[in-house]
Design a protein that fits this description.
The complex is a heterodimer of chains A (199) and B (177).
Chain A (H helix, E strand, L loop, with lengths): L25 E2 L6 E6 L1 H4 L29 E2 L6 E2 L5 E3 L2 E3 L1 H9 L9 E3 L1 H11 L3 H4 L2 H14 L13 H29 L4
Antiparallel strand pairs in A: 1-2, 3-4, 5-6
Helix pairs in contact in A: 3-5, 3-6, 5-6
Chain B lengths: L6 E2 L4 E2 L10 E6 L3 E8 L2 E8 L5 E6 L2 H22 L3 H24 L3 E6 L4 E3 L6 H19 L23
Antiparallel strand pairs in B: 1-3, 2-3, 3-4, 4-5, 6-7, 7-8
The chains are: A alpha+beta (199), B alpha+beta (177).
């Protein structure tokens, strides 16, 4: 028997164990909506108890860098600081201290902790395509310049986690480049005409 | 060629209820030891990882979305088709006919994709909506694909130990006399 429960997504009624892992939908006892619940072994596992650091018993015993009163259990694999059981963060089989874990997350060094990324390819492509919209076409010199700047600035920035090609990035960049060159050509032509006295 | 880190499990779908207001889209990818839910909002992507060892349950609930889509697209298909047939003008005939066809495509696709559902994924500490699983057929495929991976990560369901069988009471001695 499990201590966890599964609720109907609509009415929040707790679904009985008899509704689990059935091949078809069953009506929810609360609202009558058809629900199908697939439970996995983790559902039946009792919740793990949290770890607590052991207190330092004798003078000279290695203590945790973050909790001097707690006994050190192992060093952080990145910075080497001693950590207690409470501060020992196991990630991908490595034992890290909370600071290294946080640094790895914020600097994007630990890929599996990344939870957001900016899609520069979408940004560049969006700016390039936006320039064809009638009111914006008159300021497309600036949008194309911005797209080119982003392309150069972020040519080595990572794309989305699930993305495998930079096609959109470069297609957007090429469109923006053509727009920019078009504006330059227009500007050159206008300057030439003006200097010739509009002849 | 480098090995693909993620395999696409579901197509991109608008997050329910905010489709008109925002461009938030969601889809699901299969990683080596986890599911990756990707939410894309204009120029940023946010990720949520559900490790196979932590997934406790997946709950599907049937919804009426298929019926609603069928009614709306069916209404326009039939209405515009009837108009195209009724008007005796070649231009109008083609105009309404093409529009009827444009509504007929989602009408037929909606029927072909099968019943709709809402999906929730439960772990010990969270219950997360998975908007990209919106059809029962797709959900069944995803569940079938996940089952061996989750089983490998979590092992088998512990079967409850059978209660010890109490010894049968000794037959009462025959009454003397």
């Amino acid at each position: 028997m499990s201590t966890a429960s599964v609720q109907c997504p609509k009415c929040k009624t707790t679904l009985p164990d008899s509704a689990f892992n059935l091949p078809d939908f069953l009506p929810c006892p609360g609202c009558g909506s058809g629900v199908a619940v697939t439970v996995y072994p983790a559902f039946f596992r009792p919740p793990e108890s949290g770890r607590t650091g052991e207190l330092v018993m004798s003078e000279g015993e290695a203590s945790c860098f973050y909790h001097p009163q707690k006994k050190a259990t192992l060093p952080c694999e990145v910075c080497g600081r001693f950590v207690c059981a409470l501060c020992d963060c196991v990630h991908d089989g490595k034992h890290l201290c909370p600071t290294c874990l946080e640094t790895g997350r914020t600097k994007g060094k630990i890929k599996s902790l990344e939870n957001t990324r900016t899609r520069y390819d979408n940004m560049i492509f969006g700016l390039a395509v936006l320039a064809f919209v009638p009111p914006i076409i008159y300021i497309s010199f600036f949008t194309s310049a911005a797209a080119l700047f982003l392309m150069i600035r972020h040519r080595k920035s990572p794309l989305g986690l699930t993305q495998r090609s930079r096609v959109k990035f470069y297609v957007g960049g090429i469109i923006a480049l053509l727009q920019f060159l078009g504006w330059l050509a227009l500007g050159t032509w206008l300057i030439a005409r003006i200097s010739n006295g509009w002849k | 060629m480098a090995e693909k880190e993620y395999i696409k499990l579901t197509p991109v779908r608008q997050r329910r209820g905010v489709a008109i207001i925002t461009t938030s889209r969601s889809n699901l990818w299969l990683g080596k030891d986890h599911l990756l839910a990707v939410d894309t909002e204009s120029y940023t992507e946010s990720y949520k990882r559900f490790y196979f060892r932590d997934i406790q349950a997946i709950v599907l609930r049937k919804t009426h979305r298929r019926l609603i889509i069928a009614i709306i697209t069916g209404f326009f298909t039939v209405g515009l088709g009837a108009l195209a047939a009724a008007i005796n003008d070649t231009g109008a005939h083609w105009f309404f006919g093409i529009f009827a066809g444009l509504f007929a495509v989602p009408f037929i696709a909606n029927l072909a994709y099968g019943p709709t559902c809402a999906c929730q994924l439960k772990t010990a500490v969270q219950t997360e909506d998975v908007p990209s699983i919106s059809r029962v057929k797709r959900a069944r495929k995803v569940l079938a694909r996940l089952a061996p991976l989750i089983a490998a990560a979590q092992g088998q369901v512990p079967t409850p130990e059978p209660a010890p069988i109490a010894p049968a009471p000794a037959p009462a001695p025959p009454a003397a006399g």
